[in-house]
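Help wanted!
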Amino acid sequence: MMQDINRRKFIGKTALAGIGLAGAGAVLSSCKRKNNDPRILGLPPILNFAPGGQKLRAGLVGAGARGTGAAMNFISSASDLEIIALADVFQDKIDACRERFASFNLPIPAENCFAGFDGYKKLIAIPEVDVVILATPPQFRPDHFLEAVMNNKHVFMEKPVAVDPVGIRSVISTGKKAEAIGLCVVTGTQRRHQEDYIETYKQVINGAIGTITSAKAFWNQDHVWFREREEGWDDMEYMIRNWNNFCWLCGDHILDTHVHNIDVINWFMGKHPEKAIGYGGRHRRVTGDQYDFFSVDFDYGNGVSSHSMCRQIDSCANGTGELIMGTEGYTNCVNTIWDLKGNVKWTFEYPNDEDGNPMNAPKIPPYVQEHMHLVYGIRTGNYVNEAEQTAISTLTAIMGRTAAYTGRLITWDEIFRSDMDLGPSKVEFGPVDMLFEIPVPGTPVII
Amino acid sequence: MKIRRDSNRAFASRKIKAWLIISGFIICAILLKSGNLIISYTSSDRYCMSCHIHPTADQTWKLSTHYNNNSGSITHCVECHLPPEGHGYLYAKAKHGVKDVYGYYFKDSSKINWERKKLLEVAKGFVYEKSCLECHENLFPVMLSVDGSNAHLFYTTSNDPLNCINCHLNVGHFDRNVIHTHDKNFGVTVTKDITIYTEAAKVDRFENFTEMIPGSGVSFNMIAIPGGTFNMGSPNDEPLRDQDEGPVRQVAVSGFWMAETEVTWDEYLAFFRATGSQGRTEGQLVNKKNVDAISGPTPPWGAPDQGWGKGSHPAITMTWYAANVYCQWLSKVTGKKYRLPTEAEWEYACRGGTSTPYFFEGNPEDFSSEGFIKKLFRPDTAKITSRIIYSLNSSSRTEEPSFVKANPFGLKNMSGNVDEFCLDYYSADAFKADTVELINPKGPPRGQERVIRGGSFKSDAKDVRSAARDFTRTKAWLVTDPQMPKSIWWYSDCIDVGFRVVCEADSTIK
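Answered by r_m:
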């Protein structure tokens, strides 16, 4: 334990503006000596199962599809793990989630289920809850995270971790508060827990593609779900049921999904970009106030840029992933390194399945691996806290979004300190007095 | 035999040597032990206070959070005023010790300017940031507020040099005037029971008048400054002059009115109440040309008046931009043409017909406290003291205009009290350029910072000379403002700048 506390102090004192150990990784990359020690590189452990230990009881805040999935991932990551409480704005979401758990013979007591906007507070107040899983729309994450840490709970939280800079600063501060009292925090940026990505990262850190010169990140897909308004829904209920289409709740899809790719580029670069210029627009969406596509140039300084693009339109050239170019080769970040002529220099060897056929994914799905990491951290004292790292990547996406919405050059300093605070001042059911204008680049917008 | 004697002698001398070494060890041990004792004895609060006879230091310390707190822990003098051990502790102890012993035996403590020691820039010399961080290891305690978290995030990520006491100046010695929050009630209450003016002063002749601000009970005197020519800048032989004050050239200015005093808090708060905006966005959308919708300052952080009092004290810490919006607003409500003075107008008005270093007789070197000798023997300041508020007579704060005599034009505090904004951009060689205008000059067409003139209560005698020039330092004056964009209304880190208005005399004036 002593060693871990020292390590934390070390992190605290050396972390550069929040990139944490990824920054240390970048420093190490300049050394010629090969280094594969995951702890020094700041990499999470790759586990086949999390160690046993004290029983851990979790409460789920946000019992929709991803929340229910995350809760399932959590209990399958080790022995002696339980979901004992649920909170959601809507009772029907709680009921559905509870039924699902009951079907696996995992009953959740009704008195531990809380509907409404303050349900999370009641859940977090339960003394038996050791871990809180936060999976609501990201608008609410900063408040939920703070409440959890103030009540001494370990946290798993989904990405993105906020929708605006005010929320981002809150998450970073809360992360530091958690660190000061030894609460573990893991976030849902599962690529960082994915064995193939981790092994590729080690190759890159040890010079397999030379010095990084540019990058590309993309998440281009068909249109995503939306809900039309139903009778009896007031403004607030409608927006939350259709949260994926309102910027103040979702942050737009450059945060919601593309943040995964942006996070990988930040991780491999060992830093966040200094500024961004971007385009975006809306042609196909039916509801809400968000864009259909973004194209952003993230400038990492010294002439190194990452081209970030994301689109949600049917029947287009689609695909997701990353590509990083170096002076001696390039990589898709997930499993392959090429030299500059396009010859494969290295590939990640996937394990064989039960029938002896090679798989195309690591043995443990990353969605489970991340929970194993959390349980491992809590049970062994190998401290983990990903709040700041994921907040930085989310803020990178917010910088890109703002660049596209406004048409302006947005710098890191500007977005880091911005007053932007999306959403109504009071979150409650009923009519909402907000204008949902689609952002038009070039018009004066205060960020 | 001979050999034996030799060996005997050698044996004896070895014995002596051994004793010498042993006693040496003992002496060293005693010295070391007593040295440690001396160091710890001379680091006790009692020892500190046996010499440090500041009138209030120990009371304010006992009222501060570093003594009077719920946890019952007490932070001792040396825990803040010396660096932690291993960070130059002994060196700093020796340095401060020599200085303090000298001060104790050779200085008159009643003449020491204790107020000045409270200024941030002075305090940085004897409060060690490493010592703050030695105890305050966790900058993010769980109960830290949102504002506190933001400020500490800013501190840990800022590239600008930031010291804990930039924000927490009064945590070691309590100061009841300090407000550590956004002061949303700032200037909201009208303290005086007064009649409200419905009309501004009517002026059709070029003579002194008293302006009345409609909608408020505030009035102020405007002095008619007749046009004329004067020698602007300082001659090469003026003592303590700077290069940017020359060459001297003859400049003509047209007549104008100038406010008798620096803009007071009463005046500035009339503006603040009439135009103040609660949100930040409103302020940023101010259209410079659209005077119909003047949007004024946002609520300030803390107490812009520093707790020194408002009323007729000069208003301070507003930005150059805010001072300009004030002039636009004042013009609008009075129907006259108020603005900041040009640098030429300012110096012409300050000199009041004199061409000497000050508007009265005197050699700057005689009033200055700069230089080693001057520090030893405090200069005789009787003559300057009745006319200029500066470092040696100010108690390190602003004073009301009644404190000083006027200059030959009847203007008060042109020199000293607070620095005053001018319209001109600053350039060090503004006077050297071939294209310098000689009739109503307006300064360089472009620039970064604006001219400020007159020096302040912090200034040495050198910087309150009529020709002394200075300029705004936008970045440094906003260093602890954690907002982005930073405030356009209030400087977070400058407490000695204000301004004075002039009124243009147009063709309708006889």
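OP: Thanks! One thing I noticed: The first strand of chain A starts at residue 56 and ends at 61.
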